[in-house]
Amino acid sequence: MPQQQPARVPGAWPALPPITSWPEYGAPEFYAADPLGREKRFSVFVAAEQWRLQGVALDQLDDVDWYVHTFGDARRLAAQILAATNRIRGFQEIREARQVKREPHALKATPGWPPIRIPGGGGRYLNYDQHQAAA
Predict the structure, then answer these.
(1) pTM beyond 0.85, yes or no
(2) What is the mean pLDDT of each run of 10 residues along the chain (135 residues)?
(3) Per DSSP, what are the bridge partners of residue 117?
(4) How far apart are CA 109 and CA 23, in angstroms?
């Protein structure tokens, strides 16, 4: 008996070749691909399936392993946060530091640098002269 060919119905989907390569979801190639292309749509399906499988794997973990997987080493993270918090000056410490009176900074010109404008000096500049270098 001869093998029958599938009937060709007008308007039916054509037989498409299988997808052998596709861009990874979120990669630059993914964004550069044709928005309606088969490969881009397939990338979305692959990413959705990977997300689903990751959720299934997390659901199978017991509580302790789930927290370790989700939050990592909480003691190390807490220690880092505490160390960073201890480096931040408190409100009282900042207030006290602002109340300390200091002498104004003495301006001094440096060789090779442009002149320094003197604040409140009415447009005067402090220049580095050669006689300052000899002194």
Answers:
(1) no
(2) 60 76 92 91 92 88 82 80 82 87 85 86 82 53
(3) 125
(4) 60
